[in-house]
Write the structure tokens for this entry.
Amino acid sequence: MTLNRIGILTGGGDAPGLNAVIRAAVKTATNVYSCDVIGIRRGFEGLIEVNGTLTLTPDRVRGILPQGGTILGAANRGNPFARKVMRDGKEVVEDVSDQVVQRIHELELDSLIVVGGDGTLRISLELYQKGCPVIGVPKTIDNDIGGTDVSFGFDTAVAMATEAIDRLHTTAEAHHRVMILELMGRNTGFIALEAGLAGGADVILIPEIPFTFESIFEKIRSRASAGYHFSIVVVAEGASPLGGDQVFSIKGDEVRSPRLGGIGQLVTENIAQSCGMEARVTVLGHLQRGGSPTAFDRWLATRSGAAAVRLAASGGFGRLVGLRGESIVDVSLEEALAIPRRVDVECDAVRTARDLGICMGD
Ligand code: F6P
């Protein structure tokens, strides 16, 4: 099909590599298809609010490849199927998806490339089911989206977390302390597992393996009796004790999902009480999402942006661009979202951690 004009938006939280996707999409659309690109600001919000779009030319995207964040802005609250608005001084939730569909027609978009995580891609699937020519590109530091081996953003988050573990090691050893590092990842432990292995953690706690406090204490005590009076505990924000609950820092509502956070503090208090050692917690938080993407994330994001435009040109709507081995592939959004990616507890990385004597909490 002929591509005259495509739209691109970045939804949900940001991840390093979003700008690389935008740049690659604009360059491919312009160079190969002589097609105009319209950037949609602040996720789907730009299709609802006035002044929500901007024209993206190769000149406009020059120099953004190494930049973190997104030049289009991100919006966590931008779900057109459940949008919070004020009516007569009261906050109400409205479905404005028809307005979004209408706006896509008004803008004469042959395709809309949506770069987003689980939530944004689910909205995209619903819009596709309403007849919109949507193409998805997976983005998340959590690495929890199906249909791809890995999402851009993840490698940068792991690099940042690994550096944090390295830094905690030196101060832990100097002070004979147990250092606990809480990492992001929502309901998966990919960041904690990869960074924990790369940084040489002594204990790695992930949501896929419920932990017991006793197994953590045992590891710390055995290190101390072997003469190692310090330990590094990496805990994914979604990890929870066997038979216990995940810890949340922010409660959810009709529009926003709850936010995990606080398990690091709980683990720290328990270690300090039971192991008779000083323990300190570090919550790495949004440092995992900010800053310049790694070379791998730039490489993956660039390939994804170009592939999304090619997919649009071949009419592959309702599909998601993903990485399988060395190849960029596409799968239906429905299939990609059917089963979220989780750490396989029998995988080589978990086995390796155990072989190295790392405590996985069970
Ligand atoms: O999904 C990415 C992520 O960074 C998660 O790892 C984390 O739980 C969540 O987003 C934090 O969301 P927010 O930026 O809204 O606090």
Q: What stands out?
A: The mean pLDDT is 97. The pocket of 6-O-phosphono-beta-D-fructofuranose is lined by residues 13, 76, 117, 140-142, 184-186, 237, 259-260, 289 (CB under 6 Å). The longest helix spans residues 154-175. The first strand starts at residue 5 and ends at 10.
